[in-house]
Every structure is written in structure tokens, then in C-alpha cells.
Amino acid sequence: MYRFNHFNFNVFNLDKSLAFYREALGLSPVRTVDHDDFTLVFLGDGSGNFSLELTFIKNRTVPYDLGEGEYHLAFTTEDMAAARKKHEEMGVVVFVNEAMGIYFIADPDGYWIEIIPKK
């Protein structure tokens, strides 16, 4: 039997990413693993064991190439109007699908995150 544990994004600027995930999605660090050449920060939403792992390679000098970015992480929200207003004020909304009632935001590295209303 398998259960979800975590999902990973490699980030170029750890402080900027931590601030984004805290402000945009209310995520906070639940565990940090620090090594000489990299740091792992696991972020949680307080609802369970699943976490988003941010990997920061300390000597990296160029941002990551995300290719075509044909993948995303998704979050549900109880208040779509308030969430979208906040994300629009942050300037991070990158795509809106009014017909489906969803939208996407992008983090500082360009990873897309889908925002879905709680059904």
C-alpha cells in the first residue's frame, strides 16, 4: 500500500520562495534538512502529512529551466473570491479558466499552482 508523502520543487531563491508560499497559500515549514551544499524545507498546510519539499541548491547560479511546464500542483480553497483577489493583488495569477471556475498562480520560479474551489 502506498500513500502520498511529498512533492518537490527545486527553487533558486529559498527566502523568496518561503515568503511566497507563506503569503499566497498559508504554507509553513514543518521540517528543514540542511547540508553543506543543499537545504530541504518541507512545507505543510496543517491538515495532514502531505508536504511540499523545496530543494535549494546553495551554489546554483542560474534559475531552473522548467521546460514546457506541463505539470502543476493544486490546492482547494473555501473562498475562491477572496483567494483570487489576494493572488491578483500579489500579481501572481497566470491563467484563468472561468468556464471551469479555476485559475493558476505561478511561484517565483515559474511553477504553476492550480486553485480549485472546495466542492
Question: What is the strand and helix layout of this fold?
Answer:
Blueprint: E1 6-11, H1 14-25, E2 28-34, E3 38-44, E4 51-57, E5 73-77, H2 80-90, E6 93-97, E7 102-106, E8 112-117
Parallel strand pairs: 1-4, 5-8
Antiparallel strand pairs: 2-3, 3-4, 6-7, 7-8
The residue fraction in helices comes out at 10-25%
Question: Helical segment tally?
Answer: 2
Structural class: alpha/beta
Distance between the termini: 27 Å
Write down the secondary-structure element order: EHEEEEHEEE
Q: Main beta sheet, described?
A: 4 strands, mixed
Low-pLDDT sequence parts: none
Query: Quick check: average pLDDT?
Result: 95
Looking at the structure, what is the overall shape?
Answer: globular
Please give the order of strands in the largest beta sheet.
1-4-3-2
**Which range does the strand content fall in?**
35-45%
Count of extended strands? 8
